[in-house]
Specification:
mainly alpha; extended
Length: 205
């Protein structure tokens, strides 16, 4: 539980990207104190249109979790970090073309589908394994109930509803960055040797 002083941390909203992030955060701010439970962070980030892995969610939590109130995340920590990672196009979802290419690599026989058993094995044993709940949710959409296979082109068409314009948060981030480019870095400190070398030395010969 945060004390009154922590609840009153001001969180200025400077642009449309930050407003979009803050709005998504506030949906889960049930107490109205600019704080959410750490277990909500993955949902908030994905609701914004980002696709981090579970390992990347843990990296986010390491940065944004309130060290003085473990288990909670304050908007003042969440907003600048997520704004930065979106501006850098991190966790951007794969395009339909990228998904199709990945499925075609797995479909070495060029059948146009993958079996339920094969896709289940891939998702639970290789790479970063899916939980059973995640697998069941995916298969509910992907499996053709008549053939018990994953006809992947049809699945991609069902899955992909690409947001248009600034409904895509990465497009919004690009526009905000273009309107408010970061200031140039300060010049490196000059060294005494460089200063002396730049001075014109009179020729007494």
């Amino acid at each position: 539980m945060l004390d009154d002083e922590e609840e009153e941390i001001p969180v200025p909203i400077n642009n449309d990207l930050e407003r979009r992030i803050a709005d998504a955060f506030e949906v889960f701010d049930h107490a109205g104190n600019k704080t959410v439970d750490v277990r909500e962070i993955a949902t908030i980030v994905r609701a914004l249109g980002c696709c981090p892995t579970e390992a990347e969610i843990q990296e986010i939590l390491m940065v944004v979790e309130n060290p003085e109130s473990p288990g909670s995340v304050h908007l003042s920590n969440f907003l600048p970090h997520i704004s930065q990672v979106i501006t850098e196009h991190k966790y951007q979802p794969a395009s339909p073309a990228q998904l199709l290419e990945a499925f075609q690599v797995l479909d070495s026989d060029k059948k146009g589908f993958l079996t339920k058993e094969y896709i289940s094995t891939l998702m639970t044993q290789d790479g970063e394994p899916f939980t059973q709940d995640e697998l069941d949710e995916m298969l509910e959409i992907a499996i053709d109930p008549h053939t018990q296979t994953v006809p992947y082109e049809y699945y991609i068409n069902q899955l992909m509803h690409e947001p248009e314009g600034e409904n895509d948060i990465y497009t919004l981030a690009d526009r905000v960055l273009e309107e408010n480019p970061p200031p140039p870095p300060p010049p490196p400190p000059r060294r005494l040797s460089e200063f002396l070398a730049s001075m014109s030395v009179p020729d007494f010969s």
